[in-house]
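SEQUENCE-TO-STRUCTURE ENTRY
===========================
What this section holds: a protein sequence and its matching fold, both as plain text.
Tokens: labelled as protein backbone structure tokens, with as many entries as the chain has residues.
Question of interest: how does this chain fold, as expressed in backbone structure tokens?
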Amino acid sequence: MSQEESQEENQVESQEEEVRCPEFSMEEWIGQEDPNKDDPEKCRPCLLGVTANWYFNELEEQGHKELAASLDKIAAKEDDPELPLTICKEFDRIKDVVGEPLRERLEDFDCATQSFNPDEEIVEELSNSI
């Protein structure tokens, strides 16, 4: 392998390391400015119900019933204005205590949540219906 090819390979590996998903912890992500904050169907806190359901089901299936119950208990406090932050902190805590490959699976849920763009979904649905 030539030196030039080696440098190109190293650059590709560096770029792959830089593009890490999820880029943020869920706590960091929920605390960022939300471009859809005024849209009750697209705002970040609105997405958390689906994510919590994914976490809950995965934890139950993997035998972590106590962790699933902790999410359920937090989610039951629907009127708590701190609910989005609290549940995101719990997502992060859960990933710290579960082993592989479950932690990776939960990070996939975080990635899907953080990268979800409702406008792209609408365009895709429209193009599929035409």
Observations:
- The chain has seven helices and no strands.
- Residues 25-129 form one domain.
